[in-house]
């Protein structure tokens, strides 16, 4: 039994996972007692996965190596002759397509619960969750303390240098969020948004930078923002940006 099979069976469906070809492993319990997971997810999410795996199979130890999805997938590519990871978790399926040659086909026992049109026809990865793009705002760093409420709001020049996002060439989170914003705003307004952004190569910098007051707003995923909100840090808000401009913006334009 491959390690990629063992870990996926133990975890169940929790996030999009790329099952890596060439993994070490065998059929004995000793040989399947450890699995290496490269992951772009936050500590809380990874903890849920490793805890679920341990509860399902106490003999299975999951070692997590964290980082942005782009560098981790490139690392998988560079390690192709001697794979060090068993599972990658997670990134959009469109991102995985460029690395499909490193995937080992495997159909999860949970796959029947997923709509067929969302599954990979060759079972190279398991699609399992939907991410919600949101804004993380530190109202203590915003004049008047009012967070932006729409994508259109963020095109205002007053936000220049105050909005942080990960490098979309390195982070699938940023790529997904900015792609969606471009579709909502159109080319002209999206260009205005981009002009206001500060880009960081390391996606893990995004959330602390807002929490610590270095930036006023971050473009990110709900799942990564929520721990800061749940921690009840003063001034931190999570905003689901409307696709239409706010009333105040409309009045300003008039």
UniProtKB/TrEMBL annotation:
<protein>
    <submittedName>
        <fullName>Extracellular solute-binding protein</fullName>
    </submittedName>
</protein>
<feature type="signal peptide">
    <location>
        <begin position="1"/>
        <end position="29"/>
    </location>
</feature>
<dbReference type="Pfam" id="PF13343">
    <property type="entry name" value="SBP_bac_6"/>
</dbReference>
<keyword id="KW-0732">Signal</keyword>
